[in-house]
Amino acid sequence: MWCWTTHTTGTGTDVSQRGIGVSQRDTDVHEVAREQMARSGRRYTANCRAVVDALGGAPQPLTVVEVLERATSVVQSSAYRSLALLERAGVVQRIVTTDDFARYELSQEISGHHHHMVCTECGNVADFELPEAFEDELDAVLREMARRGRFAPADHQLDVIGTCQDCPPG
Ligand SMILES: [Zn+2]
Ligand SMILES: [Zn+2]
Question: Relative to the alpha carbon of 169, which ligand is closest?
Protein backbone atom coordinates (compact mmCIF):
# COMPACT_ATOMS: atom_id res chain seq x y z
CA MET A 1 0.00 0.00 0.00
CA TRP A 2 1.45 3.32 -1.04
CA CYS A 3 0.92 6.65 0.47
CA TRP A 4 1.46 9.72 -1.70
CA THR A 5 3.01 12.16 0.71
CA THR A 6 5.67 14.78 0.24
CA HIS A 7 7.29 16.69 3.04
CA THR A 8 9.22 19.85 2.48
CA THR A 9 10.67 20.31 5.89
CA GLY A 10 12.21 23.67 5.08
CA THR A 11 8.98 25.46 4.29
CA GLY A 12 6.58 23.38 6.32
CA THR A 13 4.60 22.39 3.23
CA ASP A 14 2.92 19.04 3.45
CA VAL A 15 0.89 17.77 0.53
CA SER A 16 -0.88 14.50 1.22
CA GLN A 17 -3.17 12.35 -0.85
CA ARG A 18 -3.45 9.24 1.25
CA GLY A 19 -4.90 5.90 0.37
CA ILE A 20 -4.14 5.73 -3.34
CA GLY A 21 -3.13 2.24 -4.39
CA VAL A 22 -0.15 1.49 -6.59
CA SER A 23 -2.23 0.19 -9.49
CA GLN A 24 -3.92 3.55 -9.93
CA ARG A 25 -0.59 5.35 -9.70
CA ASP A 26 1.21 3.14 -12.24
CA THR A 27 1.14 5.61 -15.13
CA ASP A 28 2.19 8.49 -12.93
CA VAL A 29 5.09 6.55 -11.44
CA HIS A 30 6.48 5.83 -14.89
CA GLU A 31 5.85 9.40 -16.05
CA VAL A 32 7.72 10.81 -13.06
CA ALA A 33 10.54 8.29 -13.59
CA ARG A 34 10.74 9.14 -17.30
CA GLU A 35 10.93 12.87 -16.53
CA GLN A 36 13.62 12.39 -13.90
CA MET A 37 15.66 10.22 -16.27
CA ALA A 38 15.29 12.83 -19.03
CA ARG A 39 16.51 15.53 -16.66
CA SER A 40 19.63 13.45 -16.02
CA GLY A 41 20.09 13.01 -19.78
CA ARG A 42 19.03 9.36 -19.92
CA ARG A 43 16.42 7.39 -21.78
CA TYR A 44 13.83 5.54 -19.71
CA THR A 45 14.47 2.10 -21.17
CA ALA A 46 12.38 -1.08 -20.95
CA ASN A 47 14.92 -2.42 -18.42
CA CYS A 48 14.54 0.68 -16.24
CA ARG A 49 10.78 0.37 -16.48
CA ALA A 50 10.92 -3.29 -15.42
CA VAL A 51 13.17 -2.41 -12.46
CA VAL A 52 10.80 0.39 -11.39
CA ASP A 53 7.87 -2.05 -11.64
CA ALA A 54 9.74 -4.57 -9.49
CA LEU A 55 10.56 -1.99 -6.82
CA GLY A 56 7.10 -0.43 -6.92
CA GLY A 57 5.37 -3.79 -6.55
CA ALA A 58 7.43 -4.85 -3.54
CA PRO A 59 6.30 -4.30 0.06
CA GLN A 60 9.86 -3.51 1.14
CA PRO A 61 13.24 -2.45 -0.30
CA LEU A 62 14.85 -5.09 -2.54
CA THR A 63 18.35 -6.43 -3.09
CA VAL A 64 19.55 -6.78 -6.68
CA VAL A 65 18.85 -10.54 -6.46
CA GLU A 66 15.27 -9.82 -5.41
CA VAL A 67 14.89 -7.27 -8.23
CA LEU A 68 16.01 -9.97 -10.70
CA GLU A 69 13.47 -12.43 -9.25
CA ARG A 70 10.69 -9.92 -9.92
CA ALA A 71 11.97 -8.40 -13.18
CA THR A 72 12.48 -11.65 -15.05
CA SER A 73 13.03 -9.91 -18.41
CA VAL A 74 16.12 -8.13 -17.09
CA VAL A 75 19.57 -9.76 -17.07
CA GLN A 76 21.89 -9.23 -14.11
CA SER A 77 24.31 -6.79 -15.76
CA SER A 78 21.41 -4.67 -17.02
CA ALA A 79 19.82 -4.64 -13.56
CA TYR A 80 22.99 -3.24 -12.01
CA ARG A 81 23.32 -0.64 -14.77
CA SER A 82 19.64 0.35 -14.64
CA LEU A 83 19.71 0.68 -10.85
CA ALA A 84 22.83 2.87 -11.04
CA LEU A 85 21.26 5.14 -13.67
CA LEU A 86 17.92 5.30 -11.84
CA GLU A 87 19.74 6.12 -8.61
CA ARG A 88 21.75 8.88 -10.27
CA ALA A 89 18.52 10.34 -11.70
CA GLY A 90 16.87 10.28 -8.27
CA VAL A 91 14.20 7.73 -9.22
CA VAL A 92 15.68 5.06 -6.97
CA GLN A 93 17.24 5.36 -3.55
CA ARG A 94 19.86 3.01 -2.14
CA ILE A 95 19.34 2.10 1.49
CA VAL A 96 22.35 1.80 3.72
CA THR A 97 22.11 -1.26 5.95
CA THR A 98 24.52 -3.10 8.19
CA ASP A 99 24.94 -6.12 5.91
CA ASP A 100 26.77 -6.45 2.62
CA PHE A 101 23.71 -6.32 0.38
CA ALA A 102 22.64 -2.97 -0.99
CA ARG A 103 18.88 -2.51 -0.96
CA TYR A 104 16.90 -0.29 -3.28
CA GLU A 105 13.51 1.36 -3.26
CA LEU A 106 11.75 4.02 -5.31
CA SER A 107 12.66 7.51 -4.12
CA GLN A 108 10.33 8.94 -1.50
CA GLU A 109 9.32 11.62 -4.00
CA ILE A 110 7.60 8.76 -5.84
CA SER A 111 6.74 6.27 -3.10
CA GLY A 112 5.84 8.68 -0.31
CA HIS A 113 7.68 9.70 2.85
CA HIS A 114 8.40 6.82 5.23
CA HIS A 115 10.98 5.32 7.57
CA HIS A 116 12.83 2.00 7.85
CA MET A 117 13.40 -0.73 10.41
CA VAL A 118 16.78 -2.30 9.69
CA CYS A 119 17.66 -5.76 11.10
CA THR A 120 21.34 -5.91 12.06
CA GLU A 121 21.34 -9.73 11.91
CA CYS A 122 19.86 -10.57 8.50
CA GLY A 123 19.85 -7.12 6.87
CA ASN A 124 16.09 -7.17 6.32
CA VAL A 125 14.57 -3.72 5.86
CA ALA A 126 10.88 -2.97 6.52
CA ASP A 127 9.10 0.29 5.69
CA PHE A 128 6.89 2.05 8.18
CA GLU A 129 5.05 5.34 8.45
CA LEU A 130 4.73 7.55 11.48
CA PRO A 131 1.40 9.09 12.45
CA GLU A 132 0.97 12.40 10.59
CA ALA A 133 0.73 14.41 13.82
CA PHE A 134 4.04 12.95 14.97
CA GLU A 135 5.69 13.71 11.60
CA ASP A 136 4.57 17.35 12.01
CA GLU A 137 5.96 17.48 15.54
CA LEU A 138 9.22 15.86 14.40
CA ASP A 139 9.54 18.39 11.58
CA ALA A 140 8.93 21.26 13.99
CA VAL A 141 11.63 20.02 16.38
CA LEU A 142 14.08 19.43 13.55
CA ARG A 143 13.35 22.88 12.08
CA GLU A 144 14.13 24.44 15.45
CA MET A 145 17.37 22.41 15.78
CA ALA A 146 18.34 23.40 12.25
CA ARG A 147 17.62 27.08 12.97
CA ARG A 148 19.92 26.95 15.99
CA GLY A 149 22.59 25.24 13.90
CA ARG A 150 22.15 27.79 11.07
CA PHE A 151 21.21 24.93 8.80
CA ALA A 152 18.59 24.87 6.04
CA PRO A 153 16.71 21.56 6.36
CA ALA A 154 15.27 19.94 3.25
CA ASP A 155 14.13 16.56 4.56
CA HIS A 156 14.77 14.03 7.30
CA GLN A 157 15.60 10.35 7.46
CA LEU A 158 14.94 8.21 10.51
CA ASP A 159 15.77 4.51 10.56
CA VAL A 160 15.24 2.18 13.50
CA ILE A 161 18.09 -0.29 13.97
CA GLY A 162 17.51 -3.60 15.77
CA THR A 163 16.53 -7.21 15.15
CA CYS A 164 13.50 -8.55 13.26
CA GLN A 165 11.20 -11.29 14.55
CA ASP A 166 13.20 -13.97 12.68
CA CYS A 167 16.42 -12.92 14.37
CA PRO A 168 16.11 -12.98 18.18
CA PRO A 169 18.49 -10.53 19.84
CA GLY A 170 21.66 -12.01 21.36
ZN1 LIG B 1 16.44 -10.28 10.75
ZN1 LIG C 1 9.42 11.26 8.69
Answer: 1
CA of 115 to the centre of ligand 2 (A): 6
Q: Per-residue confidence at 10, pLDDT binned at 50, 70, 90?
A: very low
Closest Cα partner for 52 from 40, 67, 39, 73? Answer: 67
Provide the CATH number for the domain formed by 4-162 in this structure: 1.10.10.10
For the chain, domain boundaries: 4-162
The dihedral built from the CA positions of residue 144, 145, 148 and 153, taken in this order, carries a sign that is: negative
**CA–CA distance, 22 with 111 (Å, rounded to integer):** 9
CA of 24 to the centre of ligand 1 (A): 32
Cβ 59 vs Cβ 114: under 8 Å = no
pLDDT digits (tens, 9 = 90+) for 41-84: 999 999 999 999 999 999 999 999 999 999 999 999 999 999 99
Q: Using a CB cutoff of 5 Å, list residues around ligand 2, an ion.
A: 135
What sign does the dihedral 109-142-95-89 (CA atoms) show? positive
Distance 63 CA to ligand 1 centre (A): 14
Supply the pTM of this predicted model: 0.75
